[in-house]
Amino acid sequence: MQELVITEDQINQFIGQYLWPVLRIGAFYTAAPIVGARTVPARIRIMLTLFTAILVAPLLPASPTISFMSVEGAVMIAKEMLIGFGLGFSVQVILQAFVVSGQFISQKMGLGFASMNDPANGVSVAIISQFYLLLTTLLFLSSNGHLIIIQLLIDSYQRFPLMGSGFSDQQFVLIVQLGSWMFASALLICLPLFTALMIVNISFGVMSRAAPQMNIFSVGFPITLLFGFILMWFSLMNFLPLYFELMDEGMELISGLIR
Q1: Cα separation of 168 and 257, whole Å?
Q2: Cα-flanking dihedrals φ and ψ of residue 82, to 5°?
Q3: SS3 of 123, please?
Q4: More confident residue, 50 or 217
């Protein structure tokens, strides 16, 4: 009777067939929006990571026979997690552009002091930012954004195979440049409200010069607040096409990482 012999390389290859995808997918889900929020329990994130890895693993080439306790294995673990964090962070930046625009609008309306706890990130943000975050999250899910980012994760294995070199210097620069794109997009979202509220503030300046005895702070604040909410209401009519335009532009930038 022939004896069955299982070598260490075979064990490492079998475990690595699922372990290496789990590292990248788990890091991606930790940094990605919605799934990576603190309101999502860690058990659900782990189950989603394992389920995605089981589906993705058969589509990948044979995993390398690398010992997990070696220096090469530690470098590969760090590389896979870095790729996952980088892709997830890039998607997170797109949605954070709307949060930053809410911060700008709140400060211009005088609502900078009105903040509430953001359960997704565990920090205090302006209440207008929370409104925009909830709105963009619903639009992101309704437009199948979650399927798009999963497809982006799967496509990353073609650009960054398991035995590849990982992110290059140009790709790190591209991730950093997403920060400037985020602030530019946030300014583009709130620029109409900024212009209208600036006209309101100029009007109050003229009124204060014409009637110095009037307390401009007690009169101007509620009127500025009222005009701000009215302008936000009118701006929602153009919010949907602006959202899709910025999402397409942001996804195009992220796609440059895996080309």
Answers
A1: 9
A2: -65, -40
A3: strand
A4: 50
Token pair of 83, please? 């790729």
Q: Encode pLDDT of 183-225 as tens digits.
A: 888 888 888 888 888 887 787 777 777 767 666 666 667 777 7
Distance CA 104, CA 116 (A): 16
Does the pLDDT of residue 1 top 60, yes or no? no
Q: Using DSSP, state whether 69 is helix, strand or coil.
A: coil
Q: Which of 182, 193, 184 is nearest to 236 (CA)?
A: 193
Beta carbons within 10 angstroms of residue 160's beta carbon: 23
The residues that bridge with 123 in the sheet, in sequence order, are 118
Q: What percent of the chain is helix, strand and coil (3-state, nearest 5)? A: 75, 5, 20
State which amino acid sits at residue 28.
F
Please report which confidence band the pLDDT of residue 118 belongs to, taking 50, 70 and 90 as the band edges. Answer: low
Name the nearest CA neighbour of 219 among 208, 209, 232, 234. 208
The amino acid that residue 52 corresponds to is T
Predicted model pTM: 0.78
